[in-house]
């Protein structure tokens, strides 16, 4: 499920059902929380149909991954309003981070590699070293940048701290939204 959003006032919320299937859905609620506005989440079966509706004018706003929407922003088919990253995205140098307009907003999407609990420390160390080497490779960095991403090598401890910090941050946003586990 993806989403596009139609901005409405919080007073018009009524019995609005909240759908969270992707990080982008919660990212929009973080905007709502910080900006004191309310957005209706419209469920989609992926970013492609949501982008189609955005391009066709059936949706007014969408939070999407840079990789899926970058080509449309470059072509001028959609207008990139802001990034959710801390810094500007190299592939969209004229698009400011949302935090420049909405102080304190931070919503960096990230991916990481996990291993089963009980994996020997030497295997974790080896995997970490190899992944960090790959992230340092110029071709991989270039490919990630072309998709709007940034390679962030680090240690398993760095990754663990990121998970703990983001879990605490997003728990507050989910609580604000009123979303319930189903």
Polypeptide structure, described:
This protein is mainly alpha-helical and 182 residues long. It contains six helices and two strands. A two-stranded antiparallel sheet has the order 1-2. Helix 1 packs across helix 6. The two termini are 15 Å apart. 20% of the residues are buried.
What is the number of strand segments? 2
Q: List low-pLDDT spans.
A: 1-21
**What structural class do the secondary elements suggest?**
mainly alpha
Shape: globular
Task: From the 3D structure, determine the CATH topology of the domain at 2-108 and 168-177.
Answer: D-Maltodextrin-Binding Protein, domain 2
Main sheet attributes: strand count, strand direction, barrel closure? 2 strands, antiparallel
Instruction: Quickly name the level 1 CATH class of the domain at 2-108 and 168-177.
Output: Alpha Beta
Distinct helical segment count: 6
The radius of gyration computed from the alpha-carbon positions, rounded to a whole number of angstroms, is: 18 Å
CATH superfamily name of the domain at 2-108 and 168-177?
Answer: Periplasmic binding protein-like II
The sequence of SSEs as H and E is EHEHHHHH
Strand content: 5-15%
Strand order of the largest sheet: 1-2
N-to-C CA distance: 15 Å
Q: What's the CATH architecture of the domain at 2-108 and 168-177? A: 3-Layer(aba) Sandwich
What is the share of helical residues?
Answer: 40-55%
Mean of residue pLDDT values: 77
Oligomer: single chain
């Amino acid at each position: 499920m993806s989403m596009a959003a139609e901005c409405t006032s919080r007073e018009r919320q009524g019995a609005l059902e909240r759908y969270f299937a992707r990080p982008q859905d919660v990212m929009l609620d973080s905007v709502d929380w910080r900006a004191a506005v309310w957005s209706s989440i419209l469920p989609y079966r992926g970013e492609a149909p949501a982008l189609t509706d955005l391009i066709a004018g059936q949706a007014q706003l969408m939070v999407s991954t840079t990789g899926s929407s970058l080509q449309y922003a470059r072509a001028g088919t959609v207008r990139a309003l802001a990034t959710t990253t801390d810094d500007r995205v190299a592939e969209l140098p004229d698009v400011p981070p949302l935090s420049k307009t909405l102080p304190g907003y931070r919503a960096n999407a990230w991916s990481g590699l996990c291993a089963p609990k009980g994996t020997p420390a030497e295997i974790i160390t080896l995997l970490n070293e190899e992944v960090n080497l790959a992230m340092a490779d110029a071709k991989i960095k270039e490919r990630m940048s072309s998709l709007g991403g940034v390679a962030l090598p680090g240690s398993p401890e760095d990754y663990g701290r990121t998970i703990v910090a983001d879990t605490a941050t997003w728990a507050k946003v989910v609580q604000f939204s009123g979303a319930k586990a189903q």
